[in-house]
Amino acid sequence: MNNNDFDEFDISKVLGVNEMGMPTADVKKTNDQLQNELQIEYWKGDIDRFGTNGSQEGIFLLPNYNLKDIWFPTSIKIKPEPFEAVIENKEREYHIEYRNEKIKTTANKELS
User: Fold this and answer.
1) What pLDDT score does 14 carry?
2) b/e map 58-68, b = 16+ CB within 10 Å
3) What is the rounded CA–CA span in Å between residue 55 and residue 87?
4) E-strand stretches of the chain
5) Are 45 and 59 in contact (CB under 8 A)?
6) How far apart are CA 79 and CA 106, in angstroms?
7) Residue 32: which H helix or E strand, with range?
8) What's the rounded Cα separation, in Å, for the pair 18 and 86?
9) Global pTM?
10) How far apart are CA 55 and CA 2, in angstroms?
11) pLDDT per residue over 60-91, tens digit each?
12) Is 97 helix (H, G, I), strand (E, B) or coil?
């Protein structure tokens, strides 16, 4: 793929996001919901303190902000922030919304 582009950068230039932070007070509950609704698997980590769900192509970082207070290697405090995204997994596209530590998903379409 040729990604050379010399125009001014804006959001339309983003090709993909590899990691998305999803801080939570309950890593296991959040992971279970991701597994059930998006069919993505727990990858590795500590199910109580800091887990990861997905794969190296795209992963949700699940820190328990009550047990882990900053994003390594920065001094930025971990706290839940709302976001919306469209993700692809197993030939299906999903819309995901994360707000107030609750996940809302909608399967948009099958990809072929």
Assistant:
1) 79
2) bbbbbbbbeee
3) 13
4) 19-21, 42-46, 50-55, 58-63, 83-89, 92-99, 102-110
5) no
6) 24
7) helix 27-38
8) 13
9) 0.83
10) 24
11) 999 999 999 999 999 999 999 999 998 888 88
12) strand
